[in-house]
Specification:
By secondary structure, the protein is mostly beta strands. It contains no helices and ten strands.
């Protein structure tokens, strides 16, 4: 499984969870790991970590809540036009540049 996979979801996108224990919730993408096909979403897939204190970094120890990675196939991008989850497709311009658009509305997903 060497190399990189292409993902249509990028950091800071708004996504909706469509499967799993957090189904129906929405959040912002914090991190994308294309080689494993996983993403980390703000407030989704919370786990508890036992963290050791680190005085140099001024971090206290204890049990910390943090987001875990979830599979990319379990989320869909939110269409900015309708506010509903949508699939993503690319429109290729005549100059060869690609633009991400929502499959249902056809509106651009770029900021």
């Amino acid at each position: 499984m060497a190399g990189t996979k292409r993902t249509k979801i990028k950091k800071n996108d708004q996504v909706a969870v469509i499967a799993g224990r957090d189904k129906g919730r929405r959040g912002r993408v914090l991190e994308v790991n294309p080689t494993k096909g996983k993403i980390r979403v703000e407030g989704i897939g919370m786990i508890k970590r036992h963290q050791k204190a680190n005085p140099q970094a001024n971090k206290g120890g204890g049990i910390v809540d943090k987001e875990s990675f979830i599979d990319i196939s379990n989320v869909q991008l939110i269409d900015p036009q309708s506010g509903k989850p949508t699939r993503v497709k690319y429109l290729v311009d005549s100059d060869g540049s690609k633009t991400r658009v929502g499959a249902t509305s056809g509106h651009s997903l770029e900021k």
